[in-house]
Amino acid sequence: MEQSTRLAADSLAFKDVTVHYNDAKDRASQDDEMQDTNRTKEIQFKASHTVLIFFFLWIFLLHAIGIYFFTKGFLLTRLVLDHKSNCGSPPIELGQPSPASFADGCWHPKTFDKAVIVIIDALRYDFTVPFSGEPHHFHNALTVLDETSRQTPEKAFLLPFIADPPTTTLQRLKGLTTGTLPTFIDAGSNFAGTAIEEDNLVAQLRDAGKTLVHLGDDTWHSLFPGYFDANLTHAYDSFNVWDLHTVDNGVTEHLLPLLKPENSSKWDIIFGHYLGVDHAGHRYGPDHSATNAKLREMDSVLRKVIASLDEKTLLVVMGDHGMDVKGDHGGESDDEIEAALWMYSNKGVFGRGHNGFMEPPATAKERPVGQIDLVPTLSLLLGMPIPFNNLGAPIAETFVGPGEPDWQNLATVNALAAAQISNYQHEYSQARGLNEDVFSLPQAFWKDGLQSWREALKSGRHSDRFRPAFESFAKHQQETLKICRSLWARFDIPSMLEGIMILICAVAILGTYARSFRPIALELIPVYLVHMTMFGTISAALCSAITLVVFRGGLVNAALLGLAAGGISGFTYASANLPQSFTLPFPRSLWGWLAVVLTLSQSIGFASNSYTIWEDEILLCFLSTFTLIAFASSMRQEFFIERILGIFQAGIFLVLTRLASLSRLCREEQMPYCRSTYYASSTSSTSAPWQLLIPIVSATLLPTVIKTYYQPTRSYQGSATIWIGFAARLGLLASAIYWVLDTADDNDWLTVDKGVLQIIKIVIARLILGVSLVVGTTMFVWSNPCISIQVTPEVNGSADGDVAPKPKSVKVFGYANVHGTRYFLLVINWLLAVVLLQKPMGAGAIGVLAVQILALLEIVNTNNLSQSAIGPVVLGLLGSFHFFKTGHQATLSSIQWESAFVALKTIRYPWSPLLVVLNTFGAQILTTIAVPLIALWKQPPKKPRLLGDVAKALATLLLYYAVINLATTMWAGWLRRHLMLYRIFSPRFMTGAAVLLIVDLIGILVGIGSLRWNFASIAEVFGWN
Amino acid sequence: MTETTTEAKPRKLIPISQSISVLPTDTARIYNHIHPILILSLYYLCFPSLVSDPVSALKKSVAPLAHLQIIYCVVCLPPSKGSSTQSTPSTTPKKKKVQFAKPAAKPPTTLATRIIPAILSLLLSLSLSAPLLTVILILFGAPLTTHFWHNLLCATHISLLGVLPLFYVHGVDGRMWREISGACLPFDEVWGGVIGAVVGAWLGAVPIPLDWDREWQKWPVTIVTGAYLGWFVFRFAGEYLLRGKRIEFD
């Protein structure tokens, strides 16, 4: 068969192909043969496609196992039990009467009716005790606590009050109200939000019908929404650390009037939370006159409070944590955990008889009590049941009584607390499937205590006889606490190391595959796959068997570890036997080096909290750097069209990057050098009306702009016209309408019933998601390539030679970018879904991202970079960049939980989490789906090894995210004692891990998966390669 | 169906630019080495006031820097012969062996023929490249709505350091500037200085985010510092180590 193929090689923009058939008759005879080879090639393609998917699933598996092992050792989670303690049923019958009513006290006769609980944020213990040496600013300023405890020991006592890390206010308040140790993640039934679900003192007080008043730090309201009396409560924003006075003045202004006798019937418990000392610490540090002034102010306020206190009211003053030398907190250094606790009452019930020390300890190292001890103490003093999850013990000073020590009372309260702990520990072991042996030591103390108690009861109730029982019960509490602490708060280093090792190996495998395989080696993937699977299975079976025989337990972990180790050694074994299939993995061009330098410098930066905090700005700088080099590279093009195309696209990319960077949601640590623009103001999470213009503009412009990338190759044909011109336009417009309605709903612009509005919104949202993901995917499977074929019939030359003979010719419009234009339709599908789930500002950012992806593809194509690592790496940077530009940060608090309700009325699994994932990682998901385009854009339909090129591009993108994840993982593990662990490194590690797993799955299932139909549809026209 | 794929590899521009050498006089050779030290001393003297009040320090040092650079150009560098005298070389790859000016054939330059291009270069680098560099700084993440003078003065300094001599030796020839914006000049003192200033300014951004609370971390002290140091290092590297080499992308 003779063909002449004409490629307009000199003009890239019009690379349509025209094929002339000179001899049509030959075709029939060769058709059969061609069909045969075609079928063979189709089967070959499908086989290698399937093999590729399995290979990438192996990579995903290694990532998942690595992250699992690291997380298991690093983020120990605590299961939250839903049980509640009950007033009517004390945890133990002690053989003495208990009142069992709220009026007299639940498990124990109550001491006080009312309480004023004042939290002075970051009140370190040494702020409160006298200091005789060279005083710092924070010394001897707040003296009232020490003074009263010395002068009237029966009315007041002052003790060091040790916080359990993390020493952040939110976690501390959880500890101070539930009596338990908050871990980084409290795994509970609650999907979103921060409200405390488990049993706690505030909930018990409310259920008992007490009127609760809260003044100050608004963190309380996210923990206890709706618990406080709406009229008397006054909450203030807690994050403005630059403002030392608003919160404090507000608290004082409302607190003192409430203490007047005429107002005393209005409330039962007041929680006052002062932030001035903490803010002074953050802003100036403790050794500064501002801190001194703040402490003096607290001193005078407390004196006023004492003066207006009646007999029935207990006054508690405490710090929720301390502060380090710079005035910051969050970690677990001594200065941060040593807070102060002071209790005062005019009733004169406090004593020191159990240890005989009358004066407050000089340093926080002597006679400290735990912060979790506050909950049982307050519960019993106020006649409440001890919350179910409590692990603390009653503070002896409050129950021992003035004068001679009342050992019986002490033993009683400790028995109640210990019984409660015992119940809890039993339930927890059952819920978690723990072996009861774990708690055998405290159980022994518990039994001892009961024994001594019974003996003391029999022997005539002399108070001294109860001392052994008290001591055993106290021991029981201490031992249980120790065990729980080790269960929840200790890092499991070997497990972390296992995880890191697996992740390192996964990076090595991915790196080898992406950058070091010779093209021919891609065809050897089946060999690798077989070895990995074989070794993996055998090793998993071996490990499980050994574990089963030798250790008896932990079967799943052993099997997973074996699987990962086997897979890795399988890959290594296969590589060792195929040494000819590698080249050195070092970059061979400036572009390659740029990809490596950008990835590595970002990874190294995660070791520093500053670079982690400012990641968004760093990504902006990196992206601009790439574009500037791309600009220079385009300048080197010989031909005008290519040069202009490259320069123009680089310019678009550069300007759009900076434009997108204007959308910011600042994290707390970026203050005051950052201004949030994502929402209407820095304190709201709703959009400003003007921001509604962004999705509307995006809906108008984006389809037109995308069209301009199709037109130069004449690819705006067939399905592209419906998709871009109609479906995308309509979908984007519908999301814009959705957000207009949403804002109208928030601001009450419409007089429509809220319920009706919500239904309309949900219908729109579901339509968009349905059309984009379900209908869109189906269409993508069936759609034809974006080409149109023009057939010119054969012209037989007339005998006289007037008409020249012309063979039949077929002209294909859109030939030059067959693969790319069709595949991009899939990106548009996902774009519609992602845009819907973003706030108006985010819709703009995602629109910008879409254009940037197209501009990048043109840059990559004109500069001949489709094989280079830089394309996928820049896509990865773009994904990370737009993660920040869609209103996210690497913190838990920036997760936009409300996006779960875009298409749903209530939480529904698995849809709600999926919507939140699509909102949070929308940018990374889109760039991952787009990564095959790096290899496909403007490539001829039958380019050899195109599938391998795509796989290589995807592997490079995954490599970028895997390196970032590995870096954040290693740094989080290495810096596990760092002050900023819980605020910066842990959340960044979790973000990195989540991104990697999601990107893996999307890349395999959507990216590689959909290639099957893309190639098939193109092969239908052009034949298999 | 089979095809003959004649995939068009994009053809690259073949650079015709040559390394420039300092004028063959003793004064030029000596001052060529004194000049960088003078510039760095100027910077060193300005540093304390740069940290305390960047805008006024940068503003005050523009004039001395411009003078020093002009003197350097006049004393050491061969001026461009202007775009009119240089024939635009053909772009087809066949004729890639292109003529370039032989130093020996140059007519002797008088002081006036050197001062005027130097002043023109100054004007061009102030009016053209300084605003352009300001835009680039902003695109790289410099504050958009505030710090206008900081950005402009920072760009002016980089421009005077790097671009002024570039205008002086290469003029406004279109082909030359295509090569310059394609970064394909061969290394010499001038081109080394340009690359050094750019790379240095880029690296200068590195310490800004750190939470060391130092006064010198403020915008744009580190950028200017990086540019000066980078310029200093790379202009020597360009003169000796890298002389004649070109940056290759692929």
TrEMBL record, chain A:
Its GO biological process annotations read:
GPI anchor biosynthetic process
- Segments traversing the membrane: 51-70, 525-551, 558-578, 590-611, 618-634, 640-661, 722-741, 762-782, 820-837, 842-860, 866-884, 914-937, 957-975, 987-1008
Q: Which GO terms describe its molecular function?
A: mannose-ethanolamine phosphotransferase activity
Kindly list the places in or outside the cell where this protein is found, as annotated in its UniProt entry. Answer: Endoplasmic reticulum membrane
Superkingdom of the organism of origin = Eukaryota
Query: By its UniProt entry, which InterPro entries does this protein fall under?
Result: Alkaline_phosphatase_core_sf, Phosphodiest/P_Trfase, PIG-O_N, PIGO/GPI13
The family this protein is said to belong to: Belongs to the PIGG/PIGN/PIGO family. PIGO subfamily.
Q: Name the chain's protein.
A: GPI ethanolamine phosphate transferase 3
Automatic annotation (TrEMBL), chain B:
Q: How does it sit in the membrane?
A: Multi-pass membrane protein
> Where primarily located?
endoplasmic reticulum
Keywords recorded for this protein, A-Z: Endoplasmic reticulum, GPI-anchor biosynthesis, Membrane, Transmembrane, Transmembrane helix
May I have one GO cellular component term?
endoplasmic reticulum membrane
Query: What segments bear the compositional bias annotation Low complexity?
Result: 83-92
Q: In which pathway does it act?
A: Glycolipid biosynthesis; glycosylphosphatidylinositol-anchor biosynthesis
- A Gene Ontology biological process annotation? GPI anchor biosynthetic process
Segments traversing the membrane: 115-142, 148-169, 190-210, 216-237
Q: Where is this region: Disordered?
A: 83-102
Spell out the subcellular localization from the entry: Endoplasmic reticulum membrane
Q: Which InterPro entries would you find in this protein's record?
A: GPI_biosynthesis_protein_Pig-F
Q: Does the keyword Metal-binding apply?
A: no
Q: Which domain of life is it from?
A: Eukaryota
- Could you tell me what this protein is called? Glycosylphosphatidylinositol anchor biosynthesis protein 11
* Organism encoding this protein: Lepraria neglecta
